[in-house]
Amino acid sequence: MPKTIITPPGTGQPIAPFVPGTLADGIVYVSGTLPFDQENNVVHVGDAAAQTRHVLESIKRVIESAGGTLDDVTFNSLFITDWSNYAAVNQVYADYFPGEKPARFCIQCGLVKPDALIEISSVAHIGGGGRHAY
Length: 134
Description:
The chain has 134 residues and is an alpha+beta fold.
């Protein structure tokens, strides 16, 4: 099965051996996405809502670069550092997924950089390949 690496324009260099997304058989797998700028610095330190918005915008860019939309997302994995941020994360999350919600899970854990409060990975089904803009 052929696969295509998805790297939206303006994406910074990853801090580990991974790519932002992979497209295979009409499915986009989005790597764990943290609230990083292009130099891998954490943005919006201390603001879980703003970090969640930043992460979801980054995920949206990956999926759109593969020819899909957030409506195509079928599954999200959420990792938060503190349950006290859960309500803020969910409020922003609901803005990005206003209709039928994707399946998901959410766990509390430590993240690669202490100032990061949220990490999300996604799976989107965009059909039989669709239009690709890499």
